[in-house]
TrEMBL record:
Superkingdom per UniProt: Bacteria
Name of this protein: NifU family SUF system FeS assembly protein
GO BP: iron-sulfur cluster assembly
Pfam families: NifU_N
InterPro entries from the UniProt entry: NIF_FeS_clus_asmbl_NifU_N (IPR002871)
Gene3D superfamilies: 3.90.1010.10
Domain NIF system FeS cluster assembly NifU N-terminal: 25-81
UniProt source species: Turneriella parva (strain ATCC BAA-1111 / DSM 21527 / NCTC 11395 / H) (Leptospira parva)
Gene Ontology molecular function: iron ion binding; iron-sulfur cluster binding
């Protein structure tokens, strides 16, 4: 299965949810490859989240950020932290099987894990810092 599957390329082309001026953000970067992500989360009526993001880097980084925003849209901060934790655990060495979904090709490429995890780590940092 190629690294840049059709699912990854489609997600990577998804529009970023633009950051709002003056909005608190968290930024993470991978200095080795140049990937950079800025994350913010707007809390909507009823406590539902909307993830705002801006990314520079590879298709895996952008696809993962788009998948993050789609996965967490409309859920609570607590539920979002749970989903982030669950997603990040899928990349642990002890994982018994390769998860399915749009980022499945990345699980076979340990050198690219950082690309996929960077948006999720930034989101976790943001959600924990902004309690």
């Amino acid at each position: 299965m190629p690294t840049y599957s059709d699912d990854i390329l489609r997600l990577a082309e998804a529009n970023m949810v633009p950051l709002l001026p003056g909005e608190p953000t968290v930024e993470l970067a991978n200095r080795l490859c140049g990937d950079r992500i800025i994350i913010a989360a707007a809390v909507q009526v009823g406590g539902a989240l909307e993830i705002h993001w801006q990314a520079e880097g590879c298709a895996i980084l952008k696809a993962s950020a788009a998948y993050l925003a789609r996965t967490l849209k409309g859920i609570s901060r607590e539920a979002a932290l749970q989903r982030v934790s669950e997603f990040m655990r899928t990349f642990e060495v002890e994982a018994k099987s390769t998860p399915e979904g749009p980022l499945a090709p990345v699980y076979k490429l340990p050198a690219r894990y950082k690309c996929a995890l960077l948006p999720w780590q930034a989101c976790e940092n943001f959600l924990r810092e902004r309690r």
